[in-house]
Every structure is written in C-alpha cells, then in structure tokens.
Amino acid sequence: MNKERQQRIYELLKRGLRLAEDGDELPTEWARELFPPERREYELVYNGKETEEQILADTMAVPFQEVSTFGKNGVDWHNKLIFGDNLQAMKTLLQMKTDGKLVNADGIPGVRLIYIDPPFATKKEFRGSQDQKAYQDKIAGAEFLEFLRKRLVLMRELLAPDGSIYVHLDEKKSHYAKTILDEIFGENNFQREIIWRIGWLSGYKTKALNWIRNHDVIFFYTKSQNFIFNKSYIPYSPDYRRRDGSVPEGKGYPIEDTWNCSEIDRLDSIQIMSFAGEKTGFPTQKNENLLERIISTSSNPGDIVLDAFAGGGTTAAVAEKLGRRWIAVDVSKLAIYTTQKRMLTLRKNISNTGAPLTAKPFTLYNAGLYDFENLRNLPWEDWRFFALRLFECKDEAHKIHGFQMDGKRQGSSVHVFNHFQEGQISPQTIADLHASIGKAVGDRCFIIAPRGAFLFQEDYIEMDGVRYYALRIPYSFINELHRRQFSALVQPNDEMAINETVEAVGFDFVQPPVVELELTTKAQAVSVKIKKFESKARLRGEDKISKHDALSMVMVDYDYNGKVFDLDTAFYASAIKDNKWKIELPTKEIKGIVMLVFLDIYGNEARIAIDKAKLINKGRRLTKK
To answer: Are residues 48 and 88 in the same domain?
Structure first.
C-alpha cells in the first residue's frame, strides 16, 4: 500500500472518529474503501447498498395475525391476503418455507411464480380514476434501488427450485434494475425482456413534447435453468397456406409471434390492453389478460403465485381463476380492501365477465400492526408462540437452575411470563428470579409480558451485572436491543402518494383514532364534517403528526351488511382538507347503513356506521372514542 493511500485511510479514520463522537455514521463508501466487497466482473455500486447476508439477517420476521377468513379453510392450503411491509412479511414466508408450510400442490416447497409491479420511482404523475392524479413515486435513485433489491433477495430465497419471477418496470429505472437482477439471480438465469405495449392506454398523446412513451418493460428471470414454461399458440386460420401452398402442420403461431398472424387474430386472441370492465379505481391497476399470459405460462394449477405489491389485486384474481394458490401482500389499507372486495365479487372469465365465481377460502392477515385485544384472548400456548415471534426469539425451551425459560433472543434466555396465572411483575419478582438463577443466565435475560403486567417503567432492572429486560406487549421499543429504528406502516393522504415506496421496521399495535363528526342531510347528499380527528398511535423516536394532519383517508361502504366492509369509494385527506374537512355522500348511493372507515397515516382505523333511516334534516353530531 503506497503512502498516499495510507494517508487517505488515516484521514478517513480520524474524521470517522469525530463523526462517531457526534453520533453520525461513517458513509457507506468509506466502508467499501476500507473493506472492499468481493470483486465481481461488474456490479452496480451505490450508497447504502447492504450485503445479501445483512439483508437476510437484519430483516425482521413479523408473525401473521388472522383478521378475517372468507370461506372454510382448506386442509392443505388457504390463500393469503397480507397487510404489512412486504419485506418483513416475506421473511415470515421464508420461515414457513423452511418449516415445510409453503408448499405447492405437487409437494415442492417454495413459491412457483412471483409477479411484482413495484413503484417505478419516476417522479412522474400518473392519472387514475376520475381523471385525478394517481400517484407520484417519491423514492428515487439509490434509495429506490436498495428498496427493490432487498425485496428481490428475499424473493429469490422464496422461489421453488424451478420457480420464475417477472419484474414489471418502466424506462426510468429498468436499466439499473436489470443489473441488480443479474447480480441476484445470475445473468445466466435471465430469460427475456418482455415489451408490454401500452400505447393504446397512455392517453394525452397530443400533449407530449417528446417521443410518446408506449411501453413498459417486464424482466423474466428464473431460479435455475429448470423452469416451467407452458408455451401457448394461436391456431392457424382455416384458409391459411404456406408460400408453397401447403397446409401448415403444428399447433399454430406461438402466441408471442403476433406479427405473423392477422390483425383480427391478434386482437381476438391476445389483446391485453383494454380492461374497462375490470377497473377497481385503484391507480396503476394492471389488466387480467396480461397476468393470464404470465401465470398460465410460468405455473401450473395448484402452484403458489406471489404478488408482493398487490395493488388492485389483479394477480390474486387471475391466479384464483386459473386454479393457482396465491399470496398477495401490500402495505396500503386501500389496496387490501380493494383486493378483498375483488376476491369476493369475482366473475368466472378473464376480463371479469361471465357468471359469478366464489373464491376458494382465503384469510386476511395483519403483519406488523396487530389487534392487541384479539391477541390477549389467545390460549396460553398460542400467546406464547406469538410473543416469541414478535420479538424474533427462537422457540427453544430450556431450564436454568430449574426455572423454565421459553427461548433465546440474540443468544440470551427469554421467559414468556404467564400472566394468566402469575399475576404481575414487580421489582421484587425480578429479585426473586435473580436469586433463583443468578449469573447462570449470563449478562442479560428477556421477560415478555403484556404491558400492564409490569409494575415498573424502566426498560430493564440490573442486578449483579445481569440486566433483566422488560419486553412489553404492546410494544416497548428498546433501541439498544434492535438493529434498526422503528418505522411505521405509513398510509397515503393523497392519490399521488398511493404507491409510494414505504418500508416499515418492527411492529406496533392498533390504536383507533378519536373521531367526532357533524352530519347534515341535504336533498342530494349527506354532508359529513370531521370536527375532530386525533391519532392515538404510539410512535417512538419521532414526533407524531397531530390532529387532522394525521388523517390518511376516509373509506366508504354505502351498503354495509354488518359483517364485511365492502369498499365503494375513498376520499383522500388532501381533498377533504381542501373542502374544509367535509365529505359529501350522495343520497342515492346510500342503501341502508353506510360504514365510514377513518384511517390515520399509521394504518389505524376508526369505524362509524350511519343509518340512513335515522338521518333527519338538520345537523347531527356523532362521536367515536
């Protein structure tokens, strides 16, 4: 090493020590200067890029809490709709694969097919339902690439040995993503770059000041060279003859070879553009014909299909119609309710036509934001299992001097306190425990219990150099125990933000916001004024957004049946604010009971039902606490 390079390292270290004293971190590029990663022939290098080992180790696996089940669960499998951060949810799915609980109908573990349509990070405005601005991706550059890369690493691990993945992007970031996909899956497992022509749908062509954008890009990769590919064909027309006059043999044109067939055949057989009858109103929704091509080609009936950015639920709907098992994950409550409604109102044919189709059993889960009231009512063994999973503990029962421990967390013993039988935990309880096990437990021990079971406020009590940490449910976030700072499941308050890239870290518990309304009935509508809105979310390490500004949206079911919330429309907070915190519910839309779901930006809901029959022609005030 020459003197110039030695001096450079010396200066970096000196500056790094000063930064460390101020609480700052060394820039990632300095780490690469000092500890260069293993050399590759080529690699996309950017700030904040973690190793694959870090991603797999640091990602928290959050347990799935059942919210609602539709239909009776199957014996071997039931489909999954998961609300939560897809990275943390996929870490749990990976554990399920390891445990033999993520299995295709043919017995092969893992996901057979993944399709994702992630936010494109283009900072470009799109138009959604009612010609309104749909979303604008906010994370660009290195942050977006690492956001996507971390999820692709988990997806590779989730795939079955003969699995495939399709990544849907536009021209802004597809070139960078291709390099990342090559790194993760191997360039030899890149199969095709598929061009999906969207020119007929792009709209506003006359306003373009440049070449008109008329296609998206879909990258097709496989886990290995042994993969499923069911080739499709368009039959030859009866009067078709080869140039020599002979009648052609074989199945017909390969369906992708569309330039060789007639315009009529192309439009009738493979038209994958128009989907007016399928529209849910969700921005960036893709149509069923596109997903039919992908799912039918790269999977077989009974295979598991995963969409980690579920959006409007097209992948789940088509997978259901084609007899596949499916898992749909999304961080947006709007996407979850949109998908739920879609699965409960399916039509048999692709493009959402034909007779009604009853979906096979599926369950809606929370992954990262939990209902504590339902959790605390679990039987002891279920509570114990959930408590261990929440805090990423290994289920390893053992004893120390005869005292029962339930697991290990970061190498240290964990005790799940049985609040059903043992009452509460006081400092004396900790002293008695220490007298029993002493230093044989090591330098720390974790105790998990409901928050109300602890009679002290400290994060830990130390005795003879042993720290007894209180892991409280609902969550008590102790920064020194966790690798990353807590980050909530942020919900959008504007249609432009509906598909922002959101990354949650950790978990929390539902805290319904406080809502106070004033209703005024008019001839054509019911005016709903939000007099008070206050989020009760418990955030750590950051200031909460207060009052009305914590509102994300109001979702509406105009004909609530008393059981299932059936999303009809949504009002975003930005538009409600512009209308002086009022929304208008057309009288003609209200059939009986209208259910209003008030969503805060952290994913918490407050529900208020309004009975049309009880409304009178004057202001009426309702309070929800």
So the answer is: no
Tell me, rounded to whole angstroms, the distance of Cα 468 from its chain centroid: 34
Question: Does residue 436 share a domain with residue 288?
Answer: no
State which residues form the domain around 18.
Answer: 3-58
Residues 477 and 521 in one domain: no
The angle subtended at Cα 400 by Cα 397 and Cα 403, nearest 5°, is 80
- Say if residue 190's pLDDT is above 90: yes
Centroid of chain to Cα 625 = 29
HSE of 364 in the Cβ direction (CA atoms, 13 Å)?
21
Beta bridge partner(s), residue 487:
505
* 403-405 and 508-509 beta bridge pairing: unpaired
Q: What is the mean pLDDT of the chain?
A: 82
* Dihedral of alpha carbons 601, 606, 610, 615, sign: negative
Per-residue tokens: 416: 């799940």
Q: Which two tokens stand for residue 506?
A: 């950790």
Residue located via tokens 């007894």: 468
Of 201-210, 368-377, 435-444, the poorest mean pLDDT is in 201-210
Tokens of 490: 């942020």
218 and 317 both lie in a single domain: yes
For 399-413, what is each residue's pLDDT tens digit? 999 999 999 998 999
Domain with residue 546: its CATH number is 2.60.40
Closest CA to 165 of 51, 306, 302: 306
Tokens of 24: 């700052």
For the chain, give the percent of residues with pLDDT over 70: 75
Q: What is the CA radius of gyration of the chain?
A: 27
Residue corresponding to tokens 């230093």: 439
Same domain? For 536 and 395 the reply is no
What is the helix (H) or strand (E) element at residue 6, kind and residue range?
Answer: helix 3-21
Q: Is the peptide bond before 450 cis (omega within 30 degrees of 0)?
A: no
Say which residue the tokens 């109300």 belong to.
Answer: 452
Question: Listing from the earlier edge strand, what are the strands of the sheet with 362-367?
Answer: 65-70, 362-367, 79-84, 325-330, 304-307, 111-116, 159-169, 215-222, 190-197
pLDDT band at 373 (very low <50, low <70, confident <90, very high): confident
The domain total for the chain is 4
For the sheet with 620-624, list strands across it.
582-586, 525-534, 514-521, 620-624
Specify whether the CB–CB gap between 224 and 186 falls below 8 A: no
State how far the Cα of 71 lies from the Cα of 389, in Å rounded to an integer.
Answer: 27
Which of 367, 388, 411 corresponds to the end of one domain?
367
Residue 623, SS3? strand
Q: Is 149 strand, coil or helix?
A: helix
**List of E strands, 497-558:** 508-509, 514-521, 525-534, 551-557
Phi, psi values for residue 9, rounded to 5°: -65, -40
Distance, in Å, from the CA atom of 555 to the CA atom of 63, rounded to the nearest integer, reads 27
The amino acid present at 501, given as its one-letter code, is T
CB atoms within 10 A of CB 470: 22
- Which residue is listed with tokens 């008695």? 432
Residues 49 and 127 in one domain: no
- List the one residue out of 83, 498, 496 whose CA is nearest residue 308: 83
Q: pLDDT grade, residue 272 (50/70/90)?
A: very low
Q: Which two tokens stand for residue 181?
A: 């996909």
Domain for residue 239, yes or no? Answer: no
With respect to residue 238, please indicate whether it lies within any of the assigned structural domains: no
The answer to whether residues 80 and 154 belong to one domain is: yes
Same domain, yes or no: 386 and 332: no
pLDDT digits (tens, 9 = 90+) for 199-238: 555 555 556 677 777 778 899 999 999 999 998 777 777 7
